[in-house]
Specification:
Structural class: alpha/beta
Shape: globular
CATH class of the largest domain: Alpha Beta
CATH superfamily of the largest domain: CoaB-like
Strand content: 15-25%
Bound molecules: flavin mononucleotide
Helix content: 25-40%
Strand order of the largest sheet: 12-11-8-13-16-17-19-20
CATH architecture of the largest domain: 3-Layer(aba) Sandwich
Radius of gyration: 25 Å
Length: 414
């Protein structure tokens, strides 16, 4: 991981696990957050210790697991006071008992003490039986917690541990981690900045069941969207067909064809500062789209599909205050082709990479070419890592422009 460009590497959270049958799922939450670079301090309630051992969490987080606030107090750790300095307190799973305790402000256990002492955001992911969840007492406690600014994730509906079906399932790890990341990024350098990212390929229909597409997975665009969220941006993703899950805390617009993508991006860039075109937009589409499935028997000698050009989205979208970032996936003359694209489409930054090696792969070896300056040759890295590096450069572009605008404003005041 390129830690200097990973904003999560500087974050520390408290993960409080309470006595729900879903406590085992908290191990996955802890592990995922640690892999993202977050330092995770786990508090296990007495109830949770009946379901899962501290060793699981100390092994996953490589940090001590906290519990009894008095017996385990040390000068070095300073118990709840040190834990309260975290960037966020996440309670997952949160039992009905714990929600009640937090809502009332009881301080008879370590989590209660930390929750009162901290000024960090509180995020709770409840898990319990359908009846417990819908009981007015639980709902009143949640209402009070929400009023005080707590963020509630889930619960979902489905099969419960009792075998019954209903509300009360702990939200999926992806959702808990996604919301946590968005909360941690809130005050980042792109806070208040709207960023539009396109992702995936396009499908250009031949008939109702066939299309012309490409191998794009959508991974690069979705990684960029997540990296922008980690820096506090308000993100809109315009995504072509992809099986990957969308980032939480982003506005998602799904499209199929290049023409649809252009239309949706034109709408999405209203009020945006940055447009990143990571989608592999099909350059051509069939001139004719058959209304019914084209039958093999219709042309025994074969079928010729005439292709016409699709609109060029990056070149079409022109807004004076919009920072445009493009991708150049080329198979030859990488830098020259990328620089030509930068100038032709008035981009501020272009990410050049080898089309054959990049499209559909988890990794990319990219060269960053900015409007002014030498090409920056990056080593091969995972697309999630590359996304963090690109967003770091985009943040520089945004903050430099903010700086020069302030300077212009100050000049006008003279
Ligand atoms: C097998 C079993 C499963 C339980 N699962 C849940 C649950 O999913 N949600 C919940 O709110 N309480 C559940 N409870 C009850 C809590 O463990 C109990 O209310 C406990 O006091 C919670 O304390 P804590 O929130 O401090 O951990 C369960 C109890 C048992 C015996």
């Amino acid at each position: 991981m390129v830690d200097s460009t990973n904003p999560l590497a500087a974050k520390r959270i408290v993960l409080a696990v309470t006595g729900s049958i879903a406590a085992y799922k908290a191990a996955d939450v802890a592990s995922t957050l640690v892999q993202l670079g977050v330092a995770v301090d786990v508090i296990l309630s007495e109830g949770a210790r009946q379901f899962i051992q501290p060793l699981t969490f100390s092994a996953l987080t490589r940090r001590p697991v906290h519990g009894n606030p008095i017996a385990n107090w040390t000068v070095e750790l300073a118990g709840h006071v040190t834990l309260a300095a975290a960037d966020l307190v996440l309670v997952a799973p949160a039992t009905a008992q714990t929600l009640a305790r937090l809502s009332l402000g009881l301080a008879d256990d370590l989590l209660g003490m930390v929750a009162l002492a901290t000024s960090a955001p509180l995020v709770v992911a409840p898990a319990m039986e359908h009846g417990m969840w819908h009981h007015p007492a639980t709902q009143e406690h949640l209402h009070r917690l929400r009023e005080r600014g707590a963020v509630v994730i889930g619960p979902g509906a489905g099969r419960l541990a009792s075998g019954a079906s209903g509300d009360g399932r702990l939200a999926a790890t992806g959702e808990i981690v996604g919301v946590t990341r968005a909360m941690l990024g809130r005050a980042g350098p792109l806070a208040g900045t709207k960023v539009v990212v396109s992702a995936g390929g396009t499908h250009e229909p031949i008939d109702p069941v066939r299309f012309i597409g490409n191998r794009s997975s959508g991974l690069m665009g979705l990684a960029l969207a997540q990296a922008a969220i980690d820096l506090g941006a308000m993100v809109t993703v315009v995504a072509g067909p992809t099986h990957l899950s969308m980032p939480h805390a982003a506005e998602i617009i799904r499209v199929e064809t290049a023409e649809e993508m252009l239309l949706k991006i034109q709408g999405a860039v209203e009020g945006a500062r940055v447009l990143i075109m990571a989608a592999a937009v099909g350059d051509f589409r069939p001139a004719q789209r058959f209304e019914q499935k084209y039958k093999k028997a219709n042309s025994t000698s074969g079928l010729t599909v005439e292709l016409i050009q699709n609109p060029d989205i990056l070149a079409t979208i022109q807004a004076p205050s919009l920072i445009k970032v493009g991708f150049a996936a080329e198979t030859e003359h990488l830098v020259a082709n990328a620089r030509a694209k930068l100038e032709r489409k008035s981009l501020q930054l272009v990410v050049a990479n080898d089309a054959a090696m990049t499209i559909g792969s988890d990794e990319s070896k990219a060269i960053l070419i900015a409007l002014d300056g030498e090409p920056e040759v990056l080593p091969a890295m995972r697309k999630t890592e590359l996304a963090a590096v690109i967003m770091d450069r985009v943040t520089e572009l945004v903050t430099n422009e903010r700086g020069s605008r302030t300077a212009m404003w100050l000049d006008h005041q003279d």
